[in-house]
């Protein structure tokens, strides 16, 4: 019943509105000079003109809103572009030193490299990084990758514009090394992903006659066709000798020169060295400063009777 009463009421209201609209249309078409209809036309203008002006204002609002939205979108795009340019400028400045040191190592090893940036890092236990250079830049599988500190890894996969590098500290990496300056040969294995993040490599020597000491430096040893590692690239420094039961050769812990958690600019070796650079790229060993020795000699001098001689310092 409530629905029936509401429907009838709506119909009545609609009929009244239609009638009023017809009357107003007739009035609007009447002569403008008719003094009798002028008050009616004025009243209708006052009543319905507000609604008309409101509708016009709403239309203009949405029109302006559309224009403002496009302007805001344009400004946001410009802001994002400026931020990107600023970020690129900051990155370029921070990477300049890394690029310079990498080129110094490459120059010491007498190799030709193509510079690259790390654009992705392997997830989980995949100790790999992705570089922004590929086959179009001359990169191929098996090439050595280095940076300003030393050995980064080797290329394991290549596409047209990118390449994948297995890091030298990966658990599956085995690197032939030579000890400086003796040239004794051995191999190091990466620690893989460690819970404490120590990142210490393990060195095992080939010869039982090899003698090691903490502070000895390691570089990559010679490989067949210079793959996957060219010789002479710094690897790390021995930090501690390890005693392994039943082992016939010496072992040691090695701290790598490269920080594999903070890679940025690297170089992919396109042309290996013509000759083995040996230890040309090894970081210089710290040299202790000169020690000043002062000798004190006792010389007799004039003194009161019973007094002991006064020592005199001789430089």
Structure overview:
- This protein is of the alpha+beta class.
- It folds into 2 domains: 2-67, no CATH class; 101-271, Rod shape-determining protein MreC, domain 1 (Thrombin, subunit H, Beta Barrel).
- Helix content is 32%, strand content 26%.
- It has 2 helices and 14 strands.
- It has helices at residues 2-29, 38-109; strands spanning 112-121, 128-131, 144-146, 151-158, 163-167, 174-180, 185-189, 201-205, 217-220, 234-242, 251-256, 265-271, 295-298, 311-314.
- The strands form 3 sheets. Strands 1-2-5-4-3-12 form a 6-stranded antiparallel β-barrel.
- The longest helix has 72 residues, at 38-109.
Order of helices and strands: HHEEEEEEEEEEEEEE
The best one-word shape is: elongated
Q: From the 3D coordinates, which CATH architecture of the largest domain would you assign?
A: Beta Barrel
Number of strands: 14
Report the biggest beta sheet as strand number plus sense, adding barrel if it closes.
6 strands, antiparallel, barrel
Q: Strand content of the residues, in percent?
A: 25-35%
User: How would you describe the oligomerization state of the chains in this entry?
Assistant: single chain
Whole-angstrom Rg? 42 Å
**Low-pLDDT ranges:** 1-5, 285-297
- Let me know the CATH homologous superfamily of the largest domain: Rod shape-determining protein MreC, domain 1
How many helices? The count is 2
Whole-number tally of structural domains: 2
State the end-to-end distance. Answer: 123 Å
User: For the residues shown, what is the average pLDDT?
Assistant: 76
Computed structural class? alpha+beta
Name of the CATH class of the largest domain: Mainly Beta
């Amino acid at each position: 019943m409530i629905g029936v009463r509401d429907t009838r009421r709506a119909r009545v209201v609609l009929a009244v509105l239609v009638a009023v609209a017809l009357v107003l249309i007739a009035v609007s078409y009447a002569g403008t000079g008719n003094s009798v209809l002028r008050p009616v036309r004025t009243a209708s203008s006052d009543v319905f003109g507000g609604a008309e002006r409101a509708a016009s204002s709403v239309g203009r609002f949405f029109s302006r809103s559309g224009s403002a939205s496009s302007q805001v979108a344009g400004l946001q795009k410009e802001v994002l572009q400026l931020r990107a340019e600023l970020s690129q400028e900051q990155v370029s400045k921070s990477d300049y030193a890394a690029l310079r040191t990498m080129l110094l190592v490459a120059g010491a090893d007498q190799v030709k490299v193509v510079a690259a940036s790390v654009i992705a890092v392997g997830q989980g236990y995949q100790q790999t990084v992705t570089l922004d250079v590929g086959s179009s830049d001359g990169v191929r599988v098996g090439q050595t990758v280095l940076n300003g500190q030393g050995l980064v890894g080797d290329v394991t996969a290549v596409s047209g514009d990118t390449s994948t590098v297995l890091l030298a500290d990966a658990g599956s990496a085995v690197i032939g090394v030579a000890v400086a300056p003796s040239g004794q040969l051995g191999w190091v294995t990466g620690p893989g992903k460690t819970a404490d993040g120590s990142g210490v490599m393990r060195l095992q020597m080939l010869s039982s006659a090899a003698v090691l000491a903490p502070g000895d430096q390691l570089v990559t040893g010679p490989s067949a066709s210079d793959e996957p590692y060219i010789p002479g690239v710094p690897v790390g420094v021995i930090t501690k000798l390890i005693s392994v039961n039943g082992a016939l050769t010496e072992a040691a812990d090695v701290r790598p020169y490269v920080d594999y958690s903070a890679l940025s600019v690297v170089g992919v070796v396109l042309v290996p060295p013509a000759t083995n650079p040996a230890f040309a790229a090894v970081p210089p060993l710290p040299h202790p400063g000169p020690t000043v020795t002062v000798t004190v000699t006792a010389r007799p001098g004039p003194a009161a009777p019973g007094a002991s001689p006064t020592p005199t310092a001789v430089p």
